[in-house]
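Attaching the record inline, Q. Sequence:
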Amino acid sequence: MFYIFHLFRHKLNLSICLKLQVLIQPSILELQWQVPALPDVTPEG
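Structure, as predicted:
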């Protein structure tokens, strides 16, 4: 019984991690898009 509960908890943690990754990944992609755009805004030399 305890073993099944442990397995279930592990699966729950895994799904939470996946959901967090799905939530975090778009914001990382947005940051990657914004970073190359920064040097274009600043006038060069």
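The chain has a mean pLDDT of 75. The chain is about 90% helix and 0% strand.

More tomorrow.
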